[in-house]
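Subject: for your reference before the review

Hello V.,

The reviewers asked for a structural picture of the protein, and I figured it would be easier to keep everything in one thread rather than splitting it across files. Below is the amino acid sequence we used in the manuscript, unchanged from the supplementary table.
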Amino acid sequence: MIIEQVSIRAAKGRSQEIGRGIESLIGPTEVQQGCLRCRLLRGWHEPDELVLQATWETAEDLTNHLQSENYKRLLQLMELSAVTPVIEFCMVQEVRGLDLVQEARGESA
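And here is what came back from the structure prediction:
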């Protein structure tokens, strides 16, 4: 599994415009092969920070996404960022939940 995260800092007064542009990409991204989840987040302390986060099943699925017209539109939106956008891809080997918390705290399930 791969988590893609793109952070864009909108210039003052442009976060709604850029946010709507990013939001329009979510539906088309979610229907791409291998997309497990896609969402748009806004910074709590930095309301002009917009974060698009998508989770991909395989590296091939991510590569297909990066080559898509949909991603080309995202790259165009990144150019509107007030500062250099941050793009991260996290390669996840294992996903755990409450069981890890219980294990760490020495609690039984």
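For the response letter, the relevant points are probably these. The chain has one domain: 2-104. The two ends are 26 Å apart (CA to CA).

Happy to draft the paragraph if you're swamped.

O.
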